[in-house]
Amino acid sequence: MKQVVVHPERCVGCMQCMLACATAHSRSLTLFAAVQETPQPKPRIHVGAGRFNEGFPNRCRHCDPAPCQMACLAGAIYRRDSMDTVMINPDRCINCASCAMACPYGVIRFHEDPLGPVGHAIAVKCDNCSARVAKGQVPACVEVCKAGALTYEEMDAAMRRKTRTVARSMSVDTDPPAIPAGVALLKSIKQSELQLSGS
Amino acid sequence: MKHVIIGNGIAGVCAAEAIRILDATADITMIGDETFPPYSRPMISHVLDGSQPHSKLPIRSDHFYDELKITPLLGQRASAIDVDNKQVHLADGTRVNFERLLIATGADPRPLKAEGLDLKNIFYMRTQDHVKQQVAALDGARRAVVLGGGLVGFKAAYGLLKRGLEVTMLITSGYPLSMQVDQTAGHMILDELVHHGLKVEVGVSACAFEGNGSVQVAVTDAGTRLPCDMVIVGKGVLPARTFIPKDRIDLDLGVVVDDHLQTSAPDIYAAGDVAESVDIARACRWVNALWPEAASQGRVAGLNMAGRPVAYPGSLSRNVMRVFGLDVLTVGNANPQEDAGCRVVETGGADKKYYRHLVLKDDILVGVVMINRIEQGGVLRSLIENRIPIRLPPEILITPGFNFGRLLS
Q1: Is A69 buried (19+), middle (13-18) or exposed (0-12) by CB count in 10 A?
Q2: What are the residues whose beta carbons fall under 8 Å from the beta carbon of B145, sequence distance 6 or more?
Q3: Chain A contacts of B60, Cβ < 8 Å?
């Protein structure tokens, strides 16, 4: 089964994935109409700033077993085995934030959602774009990512590739794993900026 | 294998599920006091405050016992354990044989010593039945007294305030949740409650209740008379362990368990509010009577009983609650002793509507209090639980922009 794989070293922090995610979880499914919606759809992937202000795309890992599922007071969090996805039932969620305490990655947010009950805040997180995948599309964050920081692929293949890259990097006479030159430049500029400003 | 589980709270339920995952044919018997289907205990405070209906409490199917092929023995408590003959005695004289036993009897409200406790509308707050009675008593009630400022007392007071009652809370320390939060956060919570109409009396408890059939007055030990239509007693809980033979199974405050949740007697395990494991943040034996801990202990105990050795790393005090406009999240030890050699890093405060309080022992995080913007609380909890050395300046952990990416170098 294909999964979204995150390559944080390639993220440039453009936040396109956040816009695409919010749009994919809106009622209208188009960006221009989505910004007019009430409640406004919000992203379920969160690009945070790392230590050197580099981007870090943070999304649900769909853990198994999932700590949020075990901690959910209302029995609202469940696993959809067919998609290997941890889901939140918006009608059972009581917005108690016990899942925020449980999640080791900090990827759950609490707000009213266009796809949830009207007038009530609920816990909202990545659903692996199950609605898009059911229509044969790839997850919205992957589709929009221009930097190759988010890919949609078989997990086994991705793991094998990563293992090979790491193994090769151990050998001294080969080059370190390549990230695109533009991304590398952007990261070193950000890092120098921070060093110059002394923080 | 014949498994017997005493207790049908979340620890017992999760244990039964774990056993069934590993062993489709094992014989499982569950002994339980409550006949209601497995439900979410912490949600009863949401029923009291009116945000959720009583009907949403069950969190497993109505046919839970049938579906998992469990023999339920409900409606009575265990009265004794015969360790040598591997039998549990029930109140009605029944004897149940076991090969592996789980003690998951939970805890009972700490009883109050006061006169007039037999009056109507004086409640403890522990079970779905308690909250059902409380909600029924709300009709026509105008004033309430809540005893205790711990988790139960606090949630009771909050629920009744949300229902529009005039609530007076009697607490012994200067602010509510003094076991869970530090002084600054405690006063922020207190101010928020007082702003919404809570009256607080510090340093007193109730010693008598008066009324004509139903409670009408609570008399404090300072001599004050507080008129009230209902009283909720929230003075904490005590592990339900009186039936356990203390000469055969090690008892402290709770039932002492090892790192596989086995008691000092072979083949007898304990999990949930009755079990005393190790507190990770305090690094000593501790009973953390909390629902998520009970769920995870039940699961680990069940796996061990079914023959898969799984270690339990210890428990952690943790709570998250919403108090009108404040979201509060606490983990571990927020109030270390002065001689414990801990360092505190703080930011924000009452005027900011944002507060962070971290407690570090050397480079290990041992306590966190957060008020508002609590989404990253789980990241900090995980750092405490896994005892990850903090290689960053801890000030980074208290900034509003803190996120998982900051931990990666």
Answers
A1: buried
A2: B167, B168, B169, B170, B206, B218, B226, B228, B230, B231, B232
A3: 75
Mean pLDDT of chain B: 95
The C-alpha atoms of residue A141 and residue A127 are separated, in whole angstroms, by 12
- 280-339 of B, contacting A, C-beta below 8 A: 291-292, 295-296, 299, 318-322, 327, 329, 331
pLDDT band at A74 (very low <50, low <70, confident <90, very high): very high
CB of B372 less than 8 A from some CB of A: no
Indicate whether A66 belongs to any domain. Answer: yes
Question: Within 10 Å of residue B320's Cβ, how many Cβ atoms?
Answer: 24
Q: Report the length, in residues, of chain A.
A: 199
Residues of A in contact with B18 (CB under 8 A): none
Q: Is B256 exposed, middle or buried (0-12, 13-18, 19+ CB in 10 A)?
A: middle
Are B250 and B102 contained in the same domain? yes
The H helix count followed by the E strand count for chain B is 8, 26
β-bridge mates for residue A123, sequence order: A110
Residue B235 contacts A, CB cutoff 8 Å: no
Angle, helices B151-162 vs B183-195, to 10°: value is 20
Are residues B403 and A75, on separate chains, in Cβ contact within 8 Å? no
Judge if B343 and B385 occupy the same domain. Answer: yes
**Cβ of B295 and A101 within 8 Å?**
no
Burial B328-360 (b: 16+ CB within 10 A, else e): bbbbbbbbbeeeeebeebeebbeeeeebbbbbb
Q: Are A52 and A133 found together in one domain?
A: yes
Instruction: Verify that A71 and A121 share a domain, yes or no.
Output: yes
User: Which residue of chain A has the CA closest to B42?
Assistant: A73
Alpha carbon distance B102, B371 (integer Å): 38
**Residues B390/B397, Cβ–Cβ less than 8 Å:** yes
Domain that holds residue A2: 1-56+128-193
Q: Do A49 and B42 touch (CB under 8 A)?
A: no
Any B CB within 8 A of A46 CB: yes
As beta bridge partners, residue A3 has A153
ipTM of the complex: 0.93
Distance from CA of B331 to the nearest CA of A (A): 9
Here the tokens at position A163 are 């293992």
Q: How many CB atoms lie within 10 A of CB A38?
A: 6
Domain boundaries, position B16: 2-42+57-108+238-305
Are the beta carbons of B381 and A102 separated by less than 8 Å?
yes
Q: What confidence category does residue A168 fall into, taking pLDDT thresholds of 50, 70 and 90?
A: confident
Quick one: closest CA in B to A108, which residue?
A: B375
**pLDDT by residue (tens digit) across B310-362?**
999 999 999 999 999 899 999 999 999 888 899 999 999 988 889 999 999 99
- A97 to B404: CB separation less than 8 angstroms, yes or no: no
CA B261/CA B294 separation, integer angstroms:
12
